[in-house]
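Item description
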Amino acid sequence: MTVSTNDLTIRPITGPGELDLFSRLPYTLNTELADDLAHGRRRPSWMWVALDGDRLLARLSWWCRGGDDAPLLLDILDVDDGAGDVDRVGVAGLLLRTASAATLAEGANPPEYLRYVSAAWREDPAERRAVEERMAAVEGEGGSLLVERLRLEWTPGGSAPRPGDRLRFRPVRDEEELLGLTARVLEGTLDAHHRGDLAHRSAEQIAADQYAEEFERYTTPRGWWRVATLPDGGPVGFVLPARNDYHPVIAYIGVLPEHRGHGYVDDILAEGTRVLAEQGVDRIRAATDVGNTPMAAAFRRAGYTTLNAVVDMTWR
């Protein structure tokens, strides 16, 4: 589908041969595009451009996990930041509106929009303008800010971390145990996504969905997943070391409500990091909400550094 309006041509790319065109606007995800296309995480029909003749003014792309049939995230929405002769917010909004109408299921909420930014993006006038213009385009189409998240990384710097001696660790027994623990740690959660979900669904429903949509998809060994217990066997929390399509990750970590405030998260995170470190990985990625200051502090204590941040907007 091609739409011509206001002297712009808005259309999806024709295939991998137009990646050079699509990549004319700089962004951190450009280096992943070819591999994403090759593995089905993106499709040419999901990668749209707004052209003024041969000039690329704006672009967008949705992303999914390999094997999915529908977009899961809108993770690229760019406009030429040097284009002072056009309404950049208006062009980005028009592209988003046109591409969404042609691509997304009618009546369904659009996928979340993610924008990778530097951790101090508000302090850089040029980056702040760019981010706020993209956010304004999404807001103009009905989206709103949900949360800002930190992206973190651990790299080897000597011996692998070791938890203290207060807790014992064992593999997760089965799906039923993990579902029960996940539902329990949702009580009092500081995670913005889960807090929003709890307004509409039970903790048990959220846990089941997260298992089916995320945990079950990891192809790395389930034996890496750890339950932390007291010496008497009572569970304290759990951690899921895994590998996604790009990196080794701490996929999930949680402490049961009755055991919070005792510093157990440090031991549980150390165990999850140790499991991955002993696989010989060169990095481990993790993420947490900016507002989840206890978890962010735990990552810092464990030697994780902040890579960047993510602005997350939704159409809830």
Observations:
- The longest strand covers residues 144-154.
- The two ends are 28 Å apart (CA to CA).
- Residues 168-314 form a domain with the Aminopeptidase fold (CATH 3.40.630.30).
- The CA atoms of residues 153 and 285 lie 5 Å apart.
